[in-house]
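A student in our group prepared the protein record below, which I am reviewing. Thanks in advance; the entry in question is below.
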Amino acid sequence: MPFYIRLPDDTYKFHFEGEAIEFLVTKETIQPSMRTGSRSADTHFHGDRRGIDEYSVISYETERQFSSIDEAKSFTVKLVNRVLDVYRYIDQATHLMPITATDFHEFNLLKDGRLSETAITFGPGGLVLNDGGLINEIGSLVKRALEERIEVPFFENILLNAHHYHLTGEYRMSVLEAVIALEIIVYQFIREFAPKSGKSQKQIDGWIEGRGRESGLRYCVETVLNMLLPFDVRVSSDLISRCGNTVTLRNKVVHRGKKDVTEVEATSAITFSLEIIRHLNRFISS
């Protein structure tokens, strides 16, 4: 595990996806402590979400047959997240998040008590060689931005959050963040360009804040944007339709409690939101 879950070393028995599971949790402490050098075995750093000083090792037995180690990993992620879901609620462990397959430090698959396959995880980006030129370029850009007191636009931070949640498998949150970023730019564009097109403040407020059929983010995306954009730079009908579907998905999550969002849906939400954001941002005053 990439972190420590505050549970006694023990076996936890429960049913998951139709079968009985015996789930063993043990604690591994990193000595000497990276924070204090040394400490008592009876203490731990609560809130350590990076596994800097301690982490949990989990193992379980199952009658399920896996065709590959990747299939075993996928099942294990769901199983561990089931335990985490309950643990986070009971211990109010707000510092922890559900895991993905790339969070395992090491993954061993045993059959009949013997090691069948093992996998070392290098993270979602894989193991790559350092690019000295690229690192220096990034360093120069960061140094310059800090010196010039450049502020990162809020919607850019929100988009980075969307990508982060996508990377960690939190697809529902990824969709929410992507649409928040879209909403920021769409409404900013409307507030800036609608007056130039002779639209009244009352009409603008109605589009953005109203509750009728001719209001809200989906209506603004599907109708208002191309009403305001010059003909030669209007958003394609296909992109508008796909982005409108993304807004509908967000609404189902927010208003109907939709829990299950797929990786494909989250990828589409980021892609289509980003396309419209980049298109509109060219016309917005910085």
Summary: The CA atoms of residues 205 and 211 lie 11 Å apart. The chain has eight helices and five strands.
